[in-house]
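Consortium newsletter contribution from the modelling node. Members have asked for a concrete example of what our holo predictions look like. Here is one, prepared for the FE2/S2 (inorganic) cluster complex that several groups have been discussing at recent meetings.
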Amino acid sequence: MRMKVCALDDLDIGGAIKLDVQPPVAVIRGESGDVFAIDDTCTHADASLSEGFVEGDAVECPLHMAFFCLKSGQPSCPPATVPVKTHRVELIDGDIYVEISRG
Ligand code: FES
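And here is the predicted structure:
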């Protein structure tokens, strides 16, 4: 399923938008300026990564501070050990689209 998110100019560096799909997806703009989409719920417990802190192209979970690479979804420090699922982002005519993949 492909979803239009917003215009690229409307998502600041370090900003995030939570997509209200099941399970929710976080669209996050890293400090490189690139846009990434990952599952919003931390794999450690019930925290929303769209409310996390962006550093580089990674996001820090707001609850127990695990870091996830926005590109690969891999955690780089505990307590999370399981990666978050990533989704493909496309920029078309200045707008951000996310291809939400499940399964
Ligand atoms: S809920 Fe994210 S690290 Fe614990």
